[in-house]
Amino acid sequence: MAITGNLITAAVAALNVFTGALQYLFFAALILIAAVVFGLLARRYVVVDYFQRRPAGAPVPAS
Known about the structure:
- The protein is mainly alpha-helical.
- The protein has a domain at 2-39.
- It is built from two helices and no strands.
- It has helices at 2-15, 21-43.
- The protein is elongated, with a radius of gyration of 23 Å.
- Keywords: Membrane, Transmembrane, Transmembrane helix.
- The chain crosses the membrane at residues 24-46.
């Protein structure tokens, strides 16, 4: 996993040819892209509940 992170860091460093305010905007654009990708993936997420229902008349367990 660390190798993947290093490769991502190297790729971003190679792409970043900006200085000053443009460098800030470059990283802001990267964050925007990551947010859009996350949003698209989150739309496909299906919530799964693992709660078990008690049968009718079963006693409530003491907590």
